[in-house]
Design goal:
single chain, about 180 residues, mainly alpha, 6 helices, about 80% helix, about 0% strand, globular, binds fe (ii) ion
Protein backbone atom coordinates (compact mmCIF):
# COMPACT_ATOMS: atom_id res chain seq x y z
CA UNK A 1 0.00 0.00 0.00
CA UNK A 2 1.30 3.41 -1.05
CA UNK A 3 0.08 4.97 2.19
CA UNK A 4 3.01 3.53 4.11
CA UNK A 5 5.35 5.82 2.15
CA UNK A 6 3.41 8.83 3.48
CA UNK A 7 3.58 7.44 7.01
CA UNK A 8 7.35 6.99 6.66
CA UNK A 9 7.78 10.59 5.48
CA UNK A 10 5.86 11.91 8.51
CA UNK A 11 8.08 9.77 10.75
CA UNK A 12 11.05 11.63 9.19
CA UNK A 13 9.34 14.94 10.04
CA UNK A 14 8.89 13.74 13.63
CA UNK A 15 12.53 12.61 13.81
CA UNK A 16 13.73 16.03 12.58
CA UNK A 17 11.55 17.70 15.25
CA UNK A 18 13.14 15.53 17.94
CA UNK A 19 16.62 16.37 16.64
CA UNK A 20 15.89 20.11 16.84
CA UNK A 21 14.40 19.95 20.33
CA UNK A 22 17.24 17.75 21.61
CA UNK A 23 19.83 20.16 20.22
CA UNK A 24 18.19 23.14 21.96
CA UNK A 25 16.58 24.60 18.85
CA UNK A 26 13.04 25.92 18.45
CA UNK A 27 10.24 23.38 18.54
CA UNK A 28 8.78 23.19 15.00
CA UNK A 29 5.21 23.02 16.31
CA UNK A 30 3.52 23.96 13.02
CA UNK A 31 5.34 21.25 11.07
CA UNK A 32 4.65 18.61 13.73
CA UNK A 33 0.99 19.65 13.95
CA UNK A 34 0.57 19.44 10.17
CA UNK A 35 2.30 16.05 10.09
CA UNK A 36 0.10 14.73 12.89
CA UNK A 37 -2.96 16.01 11.01
CA UNK A 38 -1.97 13.89 8.01
CA UNK A 39 -1.47 10.90 10.32
CA UNK A 40 -4.96 11.42 11.76
CA UNK A 41 -6.85 11.97 8.47
CA UNK A 42 -4.92 9.88 6.00
CA UNK A 43 -3.26 7.11 8.03
CA UNK A 44 -5.59 6.52 10.98
CA UNK A 45 -9.00 7.41 9.54
CA UNK A 46 -8.36 6.09 6.02
CA UNK A 47 -5.48 3.61 5.74
CA UNK A 48 -5.94 1.88 9.09
CA UNK A 49 -9.70 1.91 8.61
CA UNK A 50 -9.17 -0.13 5.40
CA UNK A 51 -6.80 -2.52 7.16
CA UNK A 52 -9.27 -3.04 10.01
CA UNK A 53 -12.30 -3.45 7.76
CA UNK A 54 -10.91 -5.52 4.89
CA UNK A 55 -7.46 -6.96 5.61
CA UNK A 56 -7.35 -8.08 9.24
CA UNK A 57 -10.78 -9.82 9.31
CA UNK A 58 -9.79 -11.98 6.34
CA UNK A 59 -6.68 -13.17 8.14
CA UNK A 60 -8.68 -13.86 11.31
CA UNK A 61 -11.20 -15.93 9.35
CA UNK A 62 -8.37 -17.87 7.73
CA UNK A 63 -6.70 -18.38 11.16
CA UNK A 64 -3.56 -16.76 9.77
CA UNK A 65 -1.16 -14.60 11.81
CA UNK A 66 -3.82 -13.89 14.44
CA UNK A 67 -1.30 -12.95 17.14
CA UNK A 68 0.35 -10.44 14.83
CA UNK A 69 -3.00 -8.98 13.81
CA UNK A 70 -4.05 -8.54 17.45
CA UNK A 71 -0.79 -6.67 18.13
CA UNK A 72 -1.28 -4.49 15.03
CA UNK A 73 -4.83 -3.60 16.13
CA UNK A 74 -3.65 -2.65 19.58
CA UNK A 75 -0.93 -0.52 18.01
CA UNK A 76 -3.52 1.33 15.92
CA UNK A 77 -5.30 2.23 19.16
CA UNK A 78 -2.11 3.32 20.94
CA UNK A 79 -1.10 5.33 17.87
CA UNK A 80 -4.37 7.26 18.08
CA UNK A 81 -3.67 8.12 21.71
CA UNK A 82 -0.18 9.37 20.82
CA UNK A 83 -1.47 11.37 17.83
CA UNK A 84 -4.11 12.98 20.06
CA UNK A 85 -1.40 14.07 22.49
CA UNK A 86 0.85 15.35 19.68
CA UNK A 87 -2.01 17.36 18.11
CA UNK A 88 -2.96 18.83 21.51
CA UNK A 89 0.61 19.78 22.37
CA UNK A 90 1.25 21.55 19.05
CA UNK A 91 -2.12 23.29 18.52
CA UNK A 92 -2.43 26.99 17.72
CA UNK A 93 -0.75 29.50 20.02
CA UNK A 94 0.85 26.83 22.17
CA UNK A 95 4.15 27.85 23.76
CA UNK A 96 5.90 24.78 25.07
CA UNK A 97 7.70 24.83 28.39
CA UNK A 98 10.53 22.41 29.16
CA UNK A 99 8.21 19.74 30.51
CA UNK A 100 5.89 19.97 27.49
CA UNK A 101 8.84 19.74 25.07
CA UNK A 102 10.09 16.68 26.92
CA UNK A 103 6.64 15.07 26.78
CA UNK A 104 6.33 15.88 23.08
CA UNK A 105 9.69 14.22 22.35
CA UNK A 106 8.60 11.16 24.37
CA UNK A 107 5.36 10.87 22.38
CA UNK A 108 7.03 11.44 18.99
CA UNK A 109 9.76 8.90 19.78
CA UNK A 110 7.20 6.30 20.95
CA UNK A 111 5.22 6.80 17.74
CA UNK A 112 8.31 6.32 15.55
CA UNK A 113 9.49 3.31 17.54
CA UNK A 114 6.11 1.59 17.20
CA UNK A 115 5.32 2.41 13.57
CA UNK A 116 8.63 1.42 11.99
CA UNK A 117 8.24 -2.27 12.90
CA UNK A 118 4.44 -2.00 12.46
CA UNK A 119 4.57 -1.00 8.80
CA UNK A 120 7.51 -3.34 8.12
CA UNK A 121 5.47 -6.31 9.41
CA UNK A 122 2.48 -5.29 7.33
CA UNK A 123 4.53 -4.91 4.15
CA UNK A 124 6.55 -8.12 4.50
CA UNK A 125 4.19 -10.50 6.34
CA UNK A 126 0.58 -9.29 6.57
CA UNK A 127 -0.07 -8.02 3.03
CA UNK A 128 1.58 -11.06 1.35
CA UNK A 129 -0.51 -13.39 3.56
CA UNK A 130 -3.65 -11.37 2.74
CA UNK A 131 -2.89 -11.77 -0.97
CA UNK A 132 -2.62 -15.53 -0.43
CA UNK A 133 -5.98 -15.93 1.32
CA UNK A 134 -8.04 -13.70 -1.00
CA UNK A 135 -8.97 -15.07 -4.45
CA UNK A 136 -7.35 -13.10 -7.31
CA UNK A 137 -10.63 -11.66 -8.64
CA UNK A 138 -11.75 -10.47 -5.23
CA UNK A 139 -8.29 -9.00 -4.60
CA UNK A 140 -8.64 -6.84 -7.72
CA UNK A 141 -12.15 -5.76 -6.67
CA UNK A 142 -10.86 -4.77 -3.25
CA UNK A 143 -8.20 -2.63 -4.93
CA UNK A 144 -11.04 -0.71 -6.61
CA UNK A 145 -12.91 -0.40 -3.31
CA UNK A 146 -9.78 1.09 -1.72
CA UNK A 147 -9.31 3.50 -4.62
CA UNK A 148 -12.97 4.62 -4.54
CA UNK A 149 -12.79 5.21 -0.80
CA UNK A 150 -9.63 7.28 -1.33
CA UNK A 151 -11.31 9.39 -4.02
CA UNK A 152 -14.40 9.87 -1.87
CA UNK A 153 -12.33 11.13 1.05
CA UNK A 154 -9.54 13.04 -0.68
CA UNK A 155 -10.75 13.81 -4.22
CA UNK A 156 -9.45 12.35 -7.49
CA UNK A 157 -5.95 13.77 -6.95
CA UNK A 158 -6.12 12.40 -3.40
CA UNK A 159 -2.82 10.62 -3.00
CA UNK A 160 -0.81 13.21 -4.98
CA UNK A 161 -2.43 15.95 -2.89
CA UNK A 162 -1.40 14.30 0.37
CA UNK A 163 2.15 13.76 -0.92
CA UNK A 164 2.31 17.47 -1.83
CA UNK A 165 1.24 18.40 1.70
CA UNK A 166 4.01 16.25 3.16
CA UNK A 167 6.55 17.78 0.77
CA UNK A 168 5.51 21.29 1.89
CA UNK A 169 6.06 20.32 5.53
CA UNK A 170 9.48 18.88 4.64
CA UNK A 171 10.40 22.17 2.92
CA UNK A 172 9.69 24.16 6.08
CA UNK A 173 12.16 21.90 7.91
CA UNK A 174 14.78 21.83 5.12
CA UNK A 175 14.59 18.06 4.74
CA UNK A 176 12.93 17.96 1.29
CA UNK A 177 16.10 17.61 -0.81
CA UNK A 178 16.77 13.88 -1.17
CA UNK A 179 20.43 14.39 -2.12
CA UNK A 180 21.25 15.84 1.29
CA UNK A 181 20.90 12.35 2.79
CA UNK A 182 23.59 10.81 0.55
CA UNK A 183 26.72 10.19 2.63
CA UNK A 184 30.19 11.29 1.52
CA UNK A 185 32.20 8.09 1.14
FE1 LIG B 1 -1.58 -0.90 10.45
FE1 LIG C 1 -0.55 -0.02 7.51
Amino acid sequence: MLEHGVLKRVLLVYREAIRRIDSGGQTPTEAVHAGAGIIRDFIENYHEHLEERYVFPRLFRAHQLTGTVIALLEQHQRGRVLTGRILDATGASKTLDTRSRHDLVTNLAAFIRMYEPHEAQEDTVIFPAFRDVVPAKEFLQLGEVFQDEGHRRFGTSGFAGIVNQVAEIEKTLGIHDLAQFTPQV
